[in-house]
């Protein structure tokens, strides 16, 4: 795939050439295309060659990336073909880059496979999922805490918690004591101790 720009200042016949290949992969059961090499030509000769890395997409799709560049700050998807090559003197950056070499219909790009590992939509989805998980964990913690409080109050309010008094004890709280003609009474309820009258 060649982009011909003609004469630009002192560059005569500037051409950017993309070398694309297509391959069939049995694992994905479809054909994929790859950009293997980028060449810069001017004055009718090749001046710089870059090897492309990680620029591939299914053959029925197009490939899109915000930056395809030879610069490290843009993740350097274009690498000079050799250390001694003149391409090291060139800095190439494509902004809002989209390419499709095969299966083009009606002159329009097909659905694009994006190069971004984390697009803004994916990032927002992950952040929202994290927030929802934190809220769920907090709610579960509170529910478990409320259950333990319920058990505590059930234990305090249960009839078995309070000491039961027998009916016979209620009727005979005091019993006369016979002790040498002096009448005295003993309270049977041991909670209050013994009182002699």
TrEMBL record:
Keyword flag Glycosyltransferase: no
A single GO molecular function term of this UniProt record: ATPase activator activity
Locations listed in the record: Membrane
V-type proton ATPase subunit S1/VOA1 transmembrane domain sequence ranges: 118-153
V-type proton ATPase subunit S1 luminal domain boundaries: 1-102
First-listed, main subcellular location of the protein, grouped into a coarse class: membrane
Pfam families (UniProt xref): Ac45-VOA1_TM, VAS1_LD
Transmembrane segments: 121-144
Keyword field contains Nucleotide-binding: no
Protein keywords: Membrane, Transmembrane, Transmembrane helix
Gene3D superfamilies: 2.40.160.110
Cellular component aspect of the GO annotation: bounding membrane of organelle; cytoplasmic vesicle membrane; endomembrane system; proton-transporting V-type ATPase complex
Membrane-topology annotation of the record: Single-pass membrane protein
Gene Ontology biological-process entries: regulation of cellular pH
Family: Belongs to the vacuolar ATPase subunit S1 family.
Protein name in UniProt: VAS1L protein
Gene: Atp6ap1l
């Amino acid at each position: 795939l060649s982009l011909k720009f003609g004469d630009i200042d002192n560059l005569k016949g500037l051409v950017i050439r993309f070398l694309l290949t297509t391959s069939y992969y049995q694992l994905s059961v479809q054909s994929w295309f790859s950009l293997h090499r980028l060449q810069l030509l001017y004055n009718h000769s090749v001046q710089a060659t870059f090897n492309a890395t990680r620029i591939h997409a299914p053959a029925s799709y197009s490939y899109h990336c915000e930056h395809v560049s030879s610069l490290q700050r843009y993740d350097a998807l274009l690498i000079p073909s050799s250390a001694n090559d003149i391409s090291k003197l060139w800095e190439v950056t494509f902004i809002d880059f989209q390419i499709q070499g095969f299966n083009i219909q009606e002159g329009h790009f097909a659905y694009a496979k994006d190069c971004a590992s984390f697009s803004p939509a994916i990032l927002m989805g992950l952040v929202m999922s994290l927030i929802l998980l934190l809220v769920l964990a907090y709610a579960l913690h509170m529910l478990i805490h409320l259950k333990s409080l319920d058990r505590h109050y059930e234990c305090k309010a249960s009839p078995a918690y309070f000491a039961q008094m027998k009916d016979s004890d209620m009727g005979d709280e005091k019993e006369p004591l016979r002790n040498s003609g002096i009448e005295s009474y003993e309270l049977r309820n041991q909670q209050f101790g013994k009182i002699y009258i």
